[in-house]
């Protein structure tokens, strides 16, 4: 098993980040072209805790390295990921856990992401970890290669993910500012 971890501080409030999270795979993010579909499976609010739980199926298009395609004899160009997210408004945390569905008999990838407010109130900390386990029987060398390849892919995608999410956050802030200004103009016109 190999572990990837990443921590980022965003200069946006938790409210801004947790709202923008729902747009991170949309047209504002030019760094998420590999995500070709996001389907919501279920969404519910726990009446006792107020926690919003959402389950989604994410379809990605990412080409696997040629040597992996050769070893397993398949293209592996499209994959599916199950994601469950929990927005806790009382604790002001957003936690997402995901699991690969495609090729899960060959490799197990479990990822956890948490967004939580920093003490300043104007920043949000993003903590990401992924546990990658290749399931290739006794072939230690192949297992290590697969795990190393996927850790490297996580590192590359973490950079793209941060760049793309920063753009989504910028666009969200502009849209919210414009909406707030429009609402203020409407209030002024009603007076």
TrEMBL record:
Transmembrane segments: none annotated. It holds the Pfam family PRELI. InterPro entries: PRELI/MSF1_dom (IPR006797), Slowmo/Ups (IPR037365). It comes from the Eukaryota. Residues 1-177 form the PRELI/MSF1 domain. GO terms for cellular component: mitochondrial intermembrane space. PANTHER family: MSF1/PX19 RELATED. This is PRELI/MSF1 domain-containing protein. It comes from Hapsidospora chrysogenum (strain ATCC 11550 / CBS 779.69 / DSM 880 / IAM 14645 / JCM 23072 / IMI 49137).
């Amino acid at each position: 098993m190999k572990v990837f971890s990443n921590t980022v501080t965003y200069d946006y409030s938790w409210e801004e980040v947790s709202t923008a999270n729902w747009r991170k795979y949309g047209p504002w993010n030019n760094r998420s072209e590999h995500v070709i579909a996001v389907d919501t499976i279920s969404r519910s609010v726990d009446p006792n805790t107020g926690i919003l739980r959402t389950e989604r199926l994410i379809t990605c298009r990412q080409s696997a390295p040629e040597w992996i395609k050769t070893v397993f004899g398949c293209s592996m160009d499209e994959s599916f990921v199950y994601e469950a997210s929990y927005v806790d408004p009382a604790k002001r945390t957003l936690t997402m856990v995901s699991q690969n569905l495609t090729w899960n008999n060959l490799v197990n990838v479990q990822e956890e992401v948490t967004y939580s407010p920093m003490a300043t109130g104007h920043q949000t900390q993003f903590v990401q970890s992924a546990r990658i386990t290749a399931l290739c029987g006794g072939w230690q060398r192949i297992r290590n290669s697969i795990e190393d390849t996927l850790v490297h892919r996580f590192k590359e995608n973490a950079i793209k993910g941060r760049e793309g999410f920063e753009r989504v956050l910028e666009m969200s802030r502009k849209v919210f500012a414009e909406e707030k200004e429009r609402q203020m103009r409407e209030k002024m016109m009603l007076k």
